[in-house]
Amino acid sequence: MQPLLHVEDPAADGSSRLRSAWRAAHEPVAGVSHRLQRTAYAVPLIVFPASVWRLPAALDDGISLGERMYIPSLSILSEVLAFTAIGLIARWGEVFPRWIPLLRGRQVPTWAAVLPASIGAVILTLLFTVLAPIADIRGTTIRGDDVSGDAPTEAGGWELAWFYACYTPLILWGPLLALLTVAYYRRRRRAGVPAAA
């Protein structure tokens, strides 16, 4: 019996290179604890249920094309912003990736990561951790307006339970991002990276 020939599939080779490049880019840098790794990886996961919950609304009758485009765009943008939390523990948060012209391979200035992450953490904490629960308890919108009769919080039953199951994790988004930002700042300062590098 003849041995089977091993034929390499070029597509499989390309996908394995992509996977190894992905792993290398998102591998935590030295000095990042397992707890911080899990925290960073949790951020996109806690945003995901709300992003998915929104999508069926884009298929509702009676909404404009702009609203149909806005809803999935908001979900995608939310996930992309949540994913940037991983940059606070990964190499691409400290060294610009090769695909960025003019900056590739250069060190990311500490302030260039800390400033937007801090602003984001404050806004998300105010919005989802402070204002949204207060508005929900008061029975109003975040702006203080009365809640309309077709609002998800007025639905009741399984729809209300599904809404809260998807949106309640957002309470953690701002505080977790703040925790990761402080840890990133301390790690970079300990490494001797000047803030205006």
Structure overview:
Helix content is 58%, strand content 0%. It is mainly alpha-helical and 197 residues long. The protein starts with 9 loop residues before the first helix and ends in a 7-residue tail after the last helix.
Classify the beta-strand content into a percent band.
under 5%
- Indicate the mean pLDDT: 86
Radius of gyration using CA atoms only: 21 Å
Largest sheet: none
Shape: globular
Specify the helix fraction band.
55-70%
Discrete helix count: 6
Give the N-to-C terminal Cα separation: 65 Å
The count of DSSP E runs of length 2 or more, i.e. the number of strands, is 0
Structural class, by secondary structure, is mainly alpha
Q: Pick out the low-confidence regions.
A: none
Order of helices and strands: HHHHHH
